[in-house]
Design brief:
extended; 114 residues; three-stranded antiparallel beta sheet; 3 helices; alpha+beta; 38% helix
Length: 114
Amino acid sequence: MKKVRVVSVAAALLISVSALATETKPDLVAPEVQVTAEIGKMLEDNSIVLEDDREISAAVRFTLNESGEIVVLSVQTEDDRIESFVKARLNYNAVTTDGLQIGKIYEVPIRFTS
């Protein structure tokens, strides 16, 4: 009888430990990924015309102010039109993404294609 109790307790412990050790995937998407998508939506519907099969890349460095608005620090690109456009579209626009830190510097790559 004593062996049955020991075996059943050992089995219960084994089952509970294996259930707790199972990794769960978080359902939440990282805030950096969410803000990248939000910035992409802000830059849609533009009037920038590129030559056929041309692509322009840029890296946007920004931070958030106390109001949760984007403050563009720099736009690294070879095209001045892109730099002006990105700054005009993003500066002082509020973002709804939770989890971003005020004052932290973020960098988001963007790409314009024809």
